[in-house]
Design a protein that fits this description.
single chain, about 200 residues, alpha/beta, three-stranded antiparallel β-sheet, 8 strands, about 30% helix
Length: about 200
Amino acid sequence: PIVNCLLCGSDYLLTVTAELRNGPGEVLRCAACDVEMLNGPPVDYANTYRDTHGPVLGKRSTPAEVFAAYRPHQEHRVFLLTPHLHTDTRLLEVGCSAGQFLDAVKPHIGTAAGIEVDADAAIYATQQTGCSVYRSAAELPKGTFDIVCLFQVVEHFTDPIKELTPYLERLAPDGVLCIEVPSLKDPLLTLYDLPAYKRFYYH
């Protein structure tokens, strides 16, 4: 259980919700630095995460279904990274899932690679995109990549600073770290304060 803020160490934590999408657990907000943290049971991302998290709620999603559902939504990410994309750019995506972003960005750069703990998804991503997909950062040399991306990944870390470090070490000097996380200022949460959406949002 979390007793101190994972970022600043404060013990002044407020409960945002005690109900998650798929069962018990809570989200805490640090009153000192405003970081929100998931305080719930451990999640097995390598084996069971896709049993309940995917394009169809309550149904296990195959890598092919994940790719088909999310591949059409990758172009805006490529667009935002365009100033950093060149024919010799080396990019690493952490938590690359079924390879949907790798597939979108590959034509714009020199090398695209991924890290994915779900073995089935990693195999599918490699077959679908032709990119190398690894199971951990330890398989890759340090200082190798011009860009390291984590899309909707950091919010799953239980110790963000510690868990980010191996990926930061894979960045080349003057490399770019790209992190995308859900917005805690979502209007349906903050402006309209919809209970049903809050139960869906936090998971």
